[in-house]
Design a protein that fits this description.
By secondary structure, this protein is an alpha+beta fold. It has 5 helices and 9 strands. The strands form 3 sheets. It has a 5-stranded mixed β-sheet with strand order 2-4-5-9-8, with helices on one face. It has a two-stranded antiparallel sheet with strand order 1-3. A hairpin with a 3-residue loop joins strand 8 and strand 9. It is globular and about 60 Å long. It starts with a helix and ends in a 5-residue tail after the last strand. 31% of the residues are buried.
Length: 194
C-alpha cells in the first residue's frame, strides 16, 4: 500500500544519507591524515569554473542562477592541491545552491591581493543565527536550518572545507543575516610554504 511505499522510500533516502556521510567521513579522514598535499600551480579561475560546471545541473533543477564575479586576472596562478581545493569549493557552492530559494541567485566570486586569493560564495537563503555561525565548521554541527521538515546535510561538508583550508595554511569563515542569506569566504595563500 501507499504507506509501505512511503516507508520504503524513506529507508532508501536514509541509506543514501548514511552512504554520503560515510563518504564524507572517509574524505575527512584522508584530508586530516596529514598525507602530503599534491601541490601544483593552478588557475583559481579555472577551478572555480570547473566546480560551477559540475554543479550547474543541480542549480538548473532548483532554478538557481549561479553568477560569477571576478576582480582578478584570468592569468593569476596559485600553489594548491587542485583536487582538495575543488572539493572545498564544491561543498560551499553545493550548500549555497541547496539553501537558496527556488528561483534564487548565488554569486561565486574571486578576489586577490599580493599574498592570497579569497573565494566568496554568497546565497540568499534563510541565513544562519549569530550564535550558530561560530559552530558551523565543527564536525557534526547542525545549524538548525530547516527546509520543509528536512534538516539538510550531515554537518560534515563545512568541516571538510575547514580542514582543506587549514592544510593550505588558509582559513574559512562566514557572514550571515537571518532571512537574507550567507556569504562564505575561503582564503588560501598564493604560495605554499613547506
Amino acid at each position: 500500500n501507499d504507506q509501505q511505499k512511503e516507508y520504503a522510500g524513506k529507508i532508501i533516502n536514509d541509506l543514501d544519507v548514511i552512504d554520503q556521510m560515510v563518504d564524507k567521513l572517509l574524505d575527512l579522514g584522508r584530508i586530516e591524515s596529514g598525507s602530503v598535499l599534491q601541490i601544483e600551480k593552478i588557475s583559481p579561475v579555472d577551478v572555480l569554473d570547473e566546480v560551477t560546471k559540475v554543479l550547474q545541473p543541480l542549480a538548473t533543477q532548483r532554478k538557481v542562477q549561479v553568477l560569477r564575479e571576478l576582480s582578478v586576472s584570468q592569468n593569476i596562478e596559485i600553489e594548491a592541491d587542485k583536487a582538495l581545493l575543488q572539493q572545498a569549493l564544491y561543498n560551499l557552492l553545493d550548500n549555497a545552491i541547496k539553501f537558496s530559494p527556488l528561483g534564487g541567485k548565488v554569486t561565486f566570486g574571486l578576489q586577490a591581493n599580493l599574498e592570497s586569493v579569497t573565494f566568496e560564495i554568497q546565497d540568499h537563503g534563510p541565513g544562519i543565527a549569530p550564535l550558530d555561525i561560530a559552530k558551523i565548521f565543527d564536525k557534526f554541527s547542525r545549524n538548525g536550518i530547516k527546509e520543509g521538515n528536512l534538516l539538510k546535510g550531515t554537518g560534515l561538508g563545512l568541516s571538510i572545507v575547514k580542514s582543506i583550508a587549514e592544510r593550505h595554511h588558509g582559513k574559512v569563515w562566514a557572514r550571515s543575516t537571518l532571512g537574507k542569506g550567507s556569504t562564505f569566504y575561503l582564503e588560501v595563500p598564493i604560495y605554499q610554504r613547506n
